[in-house]
Amino acid sequence: MKNSVLKEYSIITLGIILVAFAIEYFYAPNNIAAGGVTGIAIILNAVFPNLSIGVVTLVLNVVLFVVAFMFIDGKFGIKTIYASLGLSLIIWGIEKFLNPFAITNDLMIATIFGALISAVGMALVFNENASTGGTDILAKILNVFFHLDIGKSLLAVDFLITLASIFVFGVNVALYSMLSIILLGIIVDRLIEGFNVCKSVFIISKNSYEISKYIIDTLERGCTFLSGVGAYTGKDINVLYAVISRNEFIKLKKFIKETDPEAFITVGEVHEVLGEGFNDIRQY
């Protein structure tokens, strides 16, 4: 249990470090306000240079948490609080001790690589059932007080931040900010799908019971027998169904090849699995 918790928080920590790196070395030096609380902090830092992005992010997150608890009965997991406040502290630490600079002054390169690095970090955090706070809380506030859907609220928040950046940084930079927001959304979704991809397997074999024992005893996964009838032969058959990881499928395929080379197998990809042995449905 302790090792599992340590692993979760280690992954979250790596994720927020990547997000902080993207902000301090790609976004902030190029005035790219890619939505969220950090986007607001970048804009405020440009108007008031003495304001640290890390400190502004920390203050805004704390204020938003307080508002959420007071007005919308905010229920935030410990991991989300850790991720959002931890991100603020890491940004502050980079500014305080590492003297961040622009790795590139090319806005397109900064937008693409900033979005890519930030998306990897955010996907790691989201995949551990946490979030970096900020935008999520703002969107929830809009949802409660103005009855906007959460998806539309998120888009509205990022749009308003980008709109504000026009008055500070100009239309050109603001459009790059909007491009970064779009890229972030697309890349994060694709990465999370990739993290959670499993193989859905249907097997028809004369040795189905032997294969099922291999899945249960060796791979330590569950499986199910489905009753079927061969359309050509008219005979009753057992169809074995299982959901396993990609690595486990490689082992299973090798075992089936050795056990029954004439087995019939269909394989599909599933992008989310909830239940025993996978993600706990109660956390979603």
Automatic annotation (TrEMBL):
The keyword Transcription does not apply. GO terms for cellular component: plasma membrane. Keywords: Cell membrane, Membrane, Transmembrane, Transmembrane helix. The keyword Membrane applies. It is found in: Cell membrane. It is a multi-pass membrane protein. The chain crosses the membrane at residues 9-26, 32-48, 55-72, 78-95, 107-126, 159-187. InterPro entries: DUF2179, N-reg_PII/ATP_PRibTrfase_C, UPF0750_membrane, YitT. Pfam families: DUF2179, YitT_membrane. Residues 221-275 form the DUF2179 domain. PANTHER family: UPF0750 MEMBRANE PROTEIN YITE, UPF0750 MEMBRANE PROTEIN YITT-RELATED. This is DUF2179 domain-containing protein.
